[in-house]
Amino acid sequence: LTSGLNYSEWGERIGYDAVLHKAEAVVTTIDTATGDTTSTVIDDYISDPSFPAGYKNKYRYVGIPLLIGYKIEISDNFTITPNMGGSVGMLVSNKKGRYVSRYLYGTVYEPANKILFNGIGSVDLLWKRKNFSLMLSPFYRYNLNLLLGRKPNGYSSGGTQTQNRYYSFGLNFGISFDLGH
Question: What confidence tens digit (pLDDT) does each residue in 89-138 have?
């Protein structure tokens, strides 16, 4: 059984080629025979390619992992321990991210979930030599819930349908010395 404390930073760089903007026009027509004028207001959404947008969103979590593993001794100096478990992370910074709105006009700020659940799999490779140990542990982590909060209608609280569910690969590295020898 393994536990501890970890820090995760989920980031994204989002680019939009164009965002729709609300365009309102007033068209006035003049009847040349009578001189009467008629004004009509036209609302429409237009694509504005002069508005390319790019945003960086970063969400930082501090989590508590809990993993269970089985130690396999390959030799006196080498062990492999496959681990499986999960973690619960608490949001510590960047509480909102910027995304294009549901109807593709403008952008909105979306609040991130305060609690993030992750599934984790790893394999600890431990090499021992007298009072010295070297550990490498590749891991895979996957969000079990969405990073952005969802309402029952499927939309986030900011009104977008953005679904952020991330995964990551990483490598933990450790060196230990036994000072008792």
Answer: 999 988 887 777 766 666 777 888 899 999 999 999 999 998 899 999 99
Rounded to whole angstroms, how far apart are CA atoms 107 and 135? 45
Could you give the CA distance from residue 98 to residue 91 in angstroms, rounded to a whole number? 17
For the CA atoms of 74, 78, 84, 88, the dihedral, rounded to the nearest 10 degrees, stands at: 170
| DSSP class of 113 | P
DSSP the chain: -EE--EEEEEEEEEEES-EEEEEEEEEEEE-TTT--EEEEEEEEEEEETT--EEEEEEEEEEEEEEEEE--EESSSSEEEEEEEEEEEEEEEE--EEEEE-TTSBSEEEEEBPSEEEEEEEEEEEEEEETTEEEEEEEEEEEESS-SB-B-TTS-BTTS-------EEEEEEEEEEE-TT-
Question: What are the structure tokens assigned to 113, written together?
Answer: 């979930």
Quote the CA–CA distance of 87 and 141 in Å, as a whole number: 9
**What is the reported pTM?**
0.68
